[in-house]
Specification:
Among the domains are: about 110 residues, Serine Threonine Protein Phosphatase 5, Tetratricopeptide repeat, CATH 1.25.40.10; about 60 residues. It is about 75% helix and about 0% strand. The radius of gyration is 26 Å and the shape is elongated.
């Protein structure tokens, strides 16, 4: 007896075969175009079935140049449909990994690794798995390499592996010292020190970044980070001064305004606290 899910798959395969027959598409290229046509019409499951049928026929072995290109495209399209339109993340990862396996070192393989890492992080909360994927991209000569080096550092920061986060940030700064993301890496370095309650080192990292003359929005984020440390130390006036400097260029001014209000409240409560009273600082 055929299960319902298998029956639907057979039905989609049959529908795809009818589309091919009607259009006269017998070549691999024609079959790929037929599957793409179903996708553009909104029949994502039908399109995926078309890619599956085509990939099954092409197999995993060596191909001529033309069919190899078609297989690579079909794998990428099947992966994208599974990920972006059907939400089948495990299937998407399987297709992306086939791209990496069959076309190692290619631009498509690096893109597949990058996307696989994003799926592992965002959908499976697997940051170590994501880091393993991004490492190949970061070590390559691809234009996206600095971006994924920073993503690796951020992932370690989220894992609370602060020393490793700083080491990965340093790699970015050393390899691409003039890249705009070098400033992001320096900001992350300061954040990692701050999360370890190493305030002096955090402030030193932030000041070093300000001395580089970063973009106004970056400088504002640095000033905000410094203000937070000053506030935590009970230096409310200094914190308010830094927040005020950050406000005009900050990418999220509402968050700065909220922080200013909270610090003012803490300062006011501290001023009226009675001797020996500690709850005013909570």
């Amino acid at each position: 007896m055929i299960s319902a899910s298998r029956g639907r798959g057979v039905g989609r395969a049959l529908a795809f075969a009818l589309v091919l027959a009607a259009s006269g598409c017998g070549s691999s290229e024609g079959r790929l175009e037929a599957a793409n046509a179903l996708r553009h019409k909104g029949d994502q499951k039908g399109a995926l079935e078309g890619y599956k049928v085509l990939l099954a026929d092409l197999g995993e072995g060596p191909l001529g140049d033309a069919d190899s290109v078609i297989r690579r495209k079909a794998l990428r399209f099947a992966a994208d449909v599974s990920y972006l339109e059907l939400g089948d993340y495990s299937a998407a990862i399987a297709y992306y990994r086939r791209v990496v396996s069959l076309y190692p070192g290619s631009k498509e393989a690096l893109e597949a690794r990058a996307i696989t890492g994003e799926i592992l992080r965002d959908r499976f909360d697997d940051r170590l798995g994501a880091i393993a994927q991004w490492a190949d991209v970061a070590q390559s000569q691809a234009p996206e390499a600095p971006k994924y080096q920073l993503e690796i550092a951020r992932a370690y920061l989220e894992l609370k592996r602060y020393e490793q986060a700083r080491a990965e940030a340093r790699k970015l700064q050393e390899r691409w010292p003039d890249h705009e993301l070098a400033d992001e890496a320096q900001l992350l370095t300061g954040q990692a020190w701050a999360l370890e309650r190493q305030d002096a080192r955090a402030l030193g990292a932030f000041e070093a970044l300000l001395q580089r003359g970063p973009r106004p929005d970056m400088a504002a984020r640095v000033l905000e980070a410094e203000a937070h440390i000053q506030s935590q130390q009970g230096k409310f006036d200094r914190a308010l001064e830094l927040y005020a400097r950050a406000l005009p260029a900050h990418p999220n001014p509402d968050s700065v305004r909220t922080a200013i209000s909270l610090v003012r409240e803490r300062r006011d409560r501290a001023k009226i606290a009675l001797p020996g009273r500690t709850d005013a600082f909570k």
